[in-house]
């Protein structure tokens, strides 16, 4: 990869018999916004702690710009962390909080002043230098924590659920601000969250994790459109996932019906899971739908209705529609072949990529 700044090679973390990270491999490029996304306890913070130098890897290599840094002390890494609870000093004002690291490094007063005002400008807190920490809102405290982390000019910034203490509206505003800040600074951000909406909104690349493993890596759109397995499809966005059978290339069967699809390269009649996103399902009349369902409940969500329904085989279907329906009514749902996403049981990301490559290679030969 061009411009690789961080590389994890077979990195493992064990606490006694507990394996917190299982042979993790990934690379981060300079200047991109990455997110580690996964449920509580999947190992996100452990990756940050290893990268920051707060804990050792039990096995594997961590490199920074090609050099092994496993044994490099935390304060010698050009990597800084913004913690979930901000970890600000309540007895120091904004200026002194931001200046703290520079004072420890015995930087001259003039340089400190210059760097602190630049960091405060970047987080839009110029004019707040003399404020006490307890005189700031949650969002402003959050920005002080970021200013303190960027004042040392790190090349990589690690952010451990930094928005989790904020209310929903401020959180959305801070997502945009953080993304803009990363673009202004041009450094690599590695952001940790268990909020899929946040990950989709902010990242260049997402790593979806579960049980100490990275299950899938890709752009938000790629992960949303092509989830590798049930866990990812369920965790990212809302999904309808039903069991089916891959009859042949571009032909999948579910709910006892055969549908044209864009997936291929599987064994004939292989059991599969089929994903259809609620926003890809159009509500229509019974005779115009590809499937017939009965409406169970509907909830108004502001811009759309979330309509819950079931088919005759007992599968549940969530439909997002700008039109409301009627509970108890039979309706049709319509979707296009490209709205159907077929997943193989137990397929890893590497196997998925290899299958796609092989299939596309064979398709090219036929042309
Ligand atoms: N010091 C420790 N001793 C023993 N087990 C630990 C220790 N630190 C973390 N773990 C375990 O390692 C696993 C991964 O923890 P980690 O904090 O990385 O998860 P996480 O994905 O960041 O979770 P959360 O979103 O809740 O912060 C968990 O099962 C946790 O219990």
TrEMBL record:
Coiled coil: none annotated. It is an enzyme of class 7 (translocase). It comes from the Bacteria. Its EC number is 7.6.2.9. It holds the Pfam family ABC_tran. GO terms for cellular component: ATP-binding cassette (ABC) transporter complex. Gene3D superfamilies: 2.40.50.100, P-loop containing nucleotide triphosphate hydrolases. Keywords: ATP-binding, Cell membrane, Membrane, Nucleotide-binding, Translocase, Transport. Residues 6-236 form the ABC transporter domain. One of its GO terms (molecular function) is ATP hydrolysis activity. InterPro entries: AAA+_ATPase (IPR003593), ABC_SmlMolc_Importer (IPR050093), ABC_transporter-like_ATP-bd (IPR003439), ABC_transporter-like_CS (IPR017871), Mo/tungstate-bd_C_term_dom (IPR008995), P-loop_NTPase (IPR027417), PotA_ATP-bd (IPR017879), Transp-assoc_OB_typ2 (IPR013611). The keyword Membrane applies. PANTHER family: SPERMIDINE/PUTRESCINE IMPORT ATP-BINDING PROTEIN POTA, SPERMIDINE_PUTRESCINE IMPORT ATP-BINDING PROTEIN POTA. This is ABC-type quaternary amine transporter. The lineage of its organism: Bacteria, Bacillati, Bacillota, Bacilli, Lactobacillales.
